[in-house]
Amino acid sequence: MSNDSSRDRPEMSRRAALGTGAALGAGLAATAAACADATPGGLPNAGELDDNLSESAHLFHLDATEPLRFDGGDLRGAHENNFPVLAGQCGSAYVVRLEPGGIREPHWHPTAWELNYHISGRAKWTILGTHPDGRYRSEEFEARAGDLVFAPQGYFHYFENAHRDHPLEVLIVFNTSAQEPNDDIGLRGALNSIPRAVTAAVLGIPESALNGIPTDLQPVVITKRR
Question: Is the CA virtual torsion 23, 24, 27, 32 positive or negative?
């Protein structure tokens, strides 16, 4: 006999959990409105959003933008600060390029999900979800050119270049207008926001074992294996 405590809870369908289609639509509309209100350039109402869509250019030369360069790769993106038509639209897109050995710092996004389309190369992925049954759900897999990977909002995730002699290119689309990587929380920052004694206790190791870890809160974003 299973000892899963969930058997004592009444089952609820996904449709019931989400509510009716009308309620879901209202929720999405509210989310879009909140995104518009949070836009740095304003655009608080539908009329101003429509004007922006009518007046702003709809073409953006992504390859012509100056990338953010890191030790291990770079990223270039389209967001509301450089592609004005995106203002208030809760959307942005980036191309991440990882050199051989390149690693996207393990991180999570408190405000957005992401869709990752693999343009070229092979990527090793890990996505860590929640643990409603007492165990974390962790997926480890390899994605190749033409594959699409979804990282849910708030889920801890990372990817790295699986090739030793070829770069990896991934197109990432977010449902946020925030500029990447300003909206993510990385592993180093998360680790160093916790007292070392607490981290050691959670890991079950002596505090001295953490002495070699850098103490700064700077985001790493992209790095590579040494």
Answer: negative
3-state secondary structure of 108: strand
Give the separation between CA 30 and CA 19, rounded to whole angstroms. 15
From CA 84, how far away is CA 66, in angstroms rounded?
17
C-alpha–C-alpha distance, residues 79 and 92, integer Å: 5
pLDDT in tens, 74-123: 999 999 999 999 999 999 999 999 999 999 999 999 999 999 999 999 99
Question: Tokens 């002699």 belong to which residue?
Answer: 165
Question: What's at 92, amino acid-wise?
Answer: S
Question: Cβ distance 106 to 158 under 8 Å?
Answer: yes
- Across the strands, what pairs with 224? 102
Q: In whole angstroms, give the CA distance from residue 2 to residue 15.
A: 26
Q: Is the pTM of this model over 0.90?
A: no
Q: How many residues does the chain have?
A: 226
Half-sphere exposure of 41 (CA within 13 A, CB side): 17
Cα 99 to Cα 224: distance, rounded to the nearest angstrom: 8
Give residue 74's region: left, alpha or beta (phi > 0; psi -120 to 50).
Answer: beta
